[in-house]
Amino acid sequence: MMHLDGTPAPLGFHMPAEFEPHVQCWMGWPERADNWRDGAVHAQHAFARVASAISRFEAVTVCASCAQWENARGQLPEHIRVVEMNMNDSWFRDIGPTFVVRRSTPKSGYAVDNIAGIDWKFNSWGGLEDGCYSDWSLDSLVTKKILEIEKIPRFTHSMVLEGGSIHVDGEGTCLTTEECLLNKNRNPLMSKSQIEDELKAYLGVRKVLWLPRGFYGDDDTNGHVDNMCCFVRPGVVLLSWTDDETDPQYERSIEAYSLLSSETDANGRNFEIIKLHVPDPLYITEEEAAGIIQDTAKARLPGTRLVASYVNFYIANGAIIAPQFGDKKWDDEAIRVLSKAFPHHEVVGIEGSREIALGGGNIHCITQQQPAI
């Protein structure tokens, strides 16, 4: 594997937006019995539905441990590639590479396209004291393994960062949250301006917009932006929203709306903000909690509110792969809003996405796009 010296932006690299073309999508395969109920059987069915839906629009590679490879291969369509890879859990948005591309036209007139992957430092969303599990040594190798498989060069970084904590518009703007990136359990020795400088140097962005907080109850990730807000296209964002003033999420949505309304993107555009209403509050049931072996991973206790956000979707080539939580009113409304926001995409709802939420995330969290070059 080639290791690239220096930083991406000065070398002409930038992180493309998720709505730009992909060559494939990467996913993991869940199996932790202390995070996924009933030995992860329900989560595996949900992951398989997500992978199958995405594979209608772009290639998919699913990584499964040696113990789970045969099971994953048997549950997934033949056209989905399944590779053996050990990991501590299956959140590929956060443990997989952040891909950056370099597109230039030299004097010869021929385009030179390059791709590389950023290997951030991962600490299980908070380290030994605040993280979701105590051993993440296998997760820390996932980016390196993916880049090795694809023969893609690698940038390394000592800064702790997960892919779900950032969204970019591909034209110089990055969205993140103070709640996550400024949390003392990530990079306690770095200031806000220092973190912002690193985002600019590695993602090739010129402006970082800091939402104060992420989605209510998102303690696992300390407020990842991918549950709260994302880009539809440059100058247009989708924002998790609720009209219920008694919901603790309401204050957070209003707070984010106010900030976005007063800001512009890197190119001076005012934002069009599309509200995407959250489902009515969902909670872990006694039955669901009983199916989890409460061991070394973060406890999943009955009565805990699930982080159920429709913003946590995946943009495939020509499709939106969106969670459905079993709340018909808001599930249907989410499909309607997403269809209007992405008129040239087919919106595919994934029934049973609650099973992914039970593990602490959703469709965007378990996927990682590899951009086309």
UniProtKB/TrEMBL annotation:
**Keyword Transmembrane helix included in the entry's annotation:** no
Q: Which domain of life is it from?
A: Eukaryota
Provide the transmembrane region boundaries: none
> In the record, what terms sit under GO molecular function?
agmatine deiminase activity; protein-arginine deiminase activity
Q: Where is the signal peptide?
A: none
- What InterPro entries does the annotation carry? Agmatine_deiminase (IPR017754), Peptidyl-Arg-deiminase_porph (IPR007466)
Provide the alphabetized UniProt keywords.
Hydrolase
Q: What is this protein called?
A: Agmatine deiminase
Q: Give the organism the record lists.
A: Canavalia gladiata
Phylogenetic classification of the source organism: Eukaryota, Viridiplantae, Streptophyta, Embryophyta, Tracheophyta
